[in-house]
Give the backbone structure.
Amino acid sequence: MKNQFVVNVIHRPEMVPEYAEKVTGHGKEENISRKALLTESLDIFKTQQAIAHKNGIKTTIQMTYASLFNDEAVSLAKEHHEKYGDEIALTLLGLPCKEFREKYKTKDFCIWMFSMEDKKEIVRDVFGKFYDTFGFYPESTGSYYMDAELTNFIKEEYPSVKCAVATCWEEGPKAYHTCNNSWYTLFDGGPWAPWIPSKQNTHAPAADASEDSGIVAIPHLSRDLIACYDGNGSNFGTHPQNVLRGMIYDSKTWEYPYLYNLIDQYRNLARFNNGYAYNMMFVGPGWMNKMGRWEAPYELLLKSYEDGMAYYGKLKKEGKLIDMTMSEFADYYRKKKTYTEPECALWDDILYGSEKELFWYTDPYMRACVNMDQGGAIVDLRPYAAKLNWPVGIGTKHVQDASYPFLIQEKYRAGYFTHYAGEGTIRSAKVTHNGEEVDLALCRTKAHFSEEIIDGRKNRVLTLDTVDIEFADLTCSVQTKVYFEEGTGRVAHERKVVKMSDPTASVSLNEYIVACYGTTEYPEDMTPVRLVIDGEEKQEIAYEYKCREAAETGAKSVYALIPPIETKVSLDVERKGEAAVSGYIKEGYAFSPMFTLGYTTQMKEGEVVKTWLSLEKAN
Amino acid sequence: MAQSGKGKLNFRCPSCFMRDLDIDMFYDKDKKQYYCIRCQYTGTEEDVLAKNEMARFRYRAAMKRFDFGLDDMEWGADGND
């Protein structure tokens, strides 16, 4: 099988580049019609196009509203379409210009934040202007974020649209924080690689044709799946100037091997996705400002773009890269992927030298992150199974907050470690012997990826290297395997006691999930949550922060209902042998606004216990 | 002159950068000093550049080129469509 590495390069002639007015215009009264600004903006676009073409890379030209009023920009787009096969598309970024402000009487510029009424008017205006200019409607569009209602409207009015830039991976509270709480792109929780958005929620991929929004979505930038989850997303992506923003270069030699490592690690994802890998570069003109950007002078900004594109060009010449326009990619993706096929990424640290390893998984039912540095614990979990309807923009409950809610988020709701008291969100297990307890989250290991058919279903399997747990009088070797079952919303952790220093000994296993819900760093109201044990009799705790617990031997399942995010999360156990299993539920308290679901059992050498976590929609 | 402006380049505060904050600094011409309006950092250009080097301490692998074994994989247009 040949592997395919597909690349999209996108340029936008943004006549008033983000940052440029703020940066170059410092000390001047705001004037977004300044001739110098417009001239420079177009020059940057021309430079970007020339660099791509010099390296044999075709581009998608995403015309901005402002550029549709500029004859030279329009003429260039037509010329490059004819000469190089570039796609002429339309972005909903770059709205700010004199014409837009006069017409809409606002300085808002993020399409997802407008009221639905305004979204419709702006889309009709922008698409109409595009049609008047080029004589056809675009096949590709996008913004930093495209909410489902916006996408559905566009697809209904303009069926030609088949591809859109629809989210920016993990651009949420972390990016907001980095910008001194002044950059309102709050959309954590989406896929990092292309997907088919559902009609109900952009982040959540469609499970079948009935949920299909009709477009293929691509992320705004291909980002580092370790660095971006921990820090500022805008420092760690296949965006050369973002790498400079992160100061990830040698300040004397102007070298940045990290950029090439990042592209290569994206190529490496072909190993986990049936030979397909994707990467994109989308640098707005504000990042190649003649005045420089932060510490980086223009010469370095330019060099980094030339070098990044030259690497793409080299790979293409070697037959290792296929450049496509966005609409070409949409056609390719539709042929390549099925609805339920997940996107997988076993991702290594290529920046900090920690040797950490994460596994990211996305399908129509969940997005999950497994951390091998924490023994295979799930440290981030988004219940896509709920396909949560979450309108955003003025007039909705979520004007800016477009994130898909989490059940587990180790950065916003702690993970294994908490200060002083309480628990953080995590899906892990504890092994206990003679009063000593070890959480597998403290057992660092590595994983091996495979695909297996089990009971007629495809599973993506992580097999973790065995860890040796040392108690005072016993050494216990445990192997973890994690099974993601395709098309069901189920993920299992299987623990096998491979060996014990005393073969007659037994240990206690406690499989658990600590969870809550939210989109930000701050706690939500937990009182709608209900915890249930489904056993001989049904036991239920309605959440009141009272620290209550319940347990039952032989419980069929334990689950939580979380009405604010229309989600049911449950655990159940597959266990051979005579040892009993006991299911339990735990309410939290005000200082620890979480809930816990779990199972306990005894294990001996050679025994295996498999605990399934399931996600379902529950209204 | 009372008002501050931007320097020749648009330096960020190195102290804030190390806590994942991008804050533009302003330049006081009289004192020949960059200063942060959010935290208490002040420094000359030379000091800012030195602190920027310090900020790179966490990128232990930034200058290493990784080998993912990609040359052992077969690449091309005729994939597993």
